[in-house]
Amino acid sequence: MNNLHSKKQVETKIASTKKTVSWSLGIIGAIIILSQGIPLLISYVKGEFHQYVQNSIHNPFPDSYKQMIEDEFAYYDPGKTYFENLSKNASNMQYGDVFTYDPITKRSKEIIVNREYNKNMYITIKSVDIKGIRITPNVESSERKVYDRYLKHGLAHFKGTPLPGDGGNSFIYGHSAVLSFFKKHSNLPETIFTKLEEVDIGDTVTIKKEEDLFEYVVRNKKIVDPEDFSILQTQGSKET
């Protein structure tokens, strides 16, 4: 009798142990799934967010703005009208008797617009791995065939705005790629300005112009509408 009772106790204990082990394994399995699933979910959400940003920015543009690089959709080009409007506004800028502060001489100097300068300059932003990218000066930016030729190899300086070192606001531009293209071609000079999104306040931008080296510190970031031409205006007494 005692043996039978002991046998039942053992069987009950074994069944209880199996159930406990089963629950434990189930919980451990759930934890493992969650530990793998949460990072995947975060990664998915981030990917969807970036795609949403891309769609929000670019969907308003018509298909005619799409530009291809080696049969792959790379970026949007607003085209001739946008740059014609910029050129008109640049040509209307008045720099006579407008002065800027020269940090080298620590004196005021008159802003110069040298439309004849033709020597390449080079830009470096170490924080986002932009190194020695060519800037072509005084590009006739109202002609797409002209600026496209230079943007294939780097950046362009907008003709009619001051050059770096000459005071005022230098307008330097380049293409930004869509995310799907940039992921595969992150160091392509033609779309290198995609990295500007990663530039932070306090980062240093260096421009080499012949033997001169100009360093600029990022104090502000601003996204402007295509119709906002205030970017061409001199920002107080600072060179930008």
UniProtKB/TrEMBL annotation:
Protein name in UniProt: Sortase
Lineage start: Bacteria, Candidatus Dojkabacteria
Pfam families cross-referenced by the UniProt entry: Sortase
InterPro entries, per database record: Sortase (IPR005754), Sortase_dom-sf (IPR023365)
Listed transmembrane segments: 21-45
Organism: Candidatus Dojkabacteria bacterium
Gene3D superfamilies: Sortase (2.40.260.10)
Keywords attached to this entry: Hydrolase, Membrane, Transmembrane, Transmembrane helix
GO molecular function, one term: hydrolase activity
Keyword hit for NAD: no
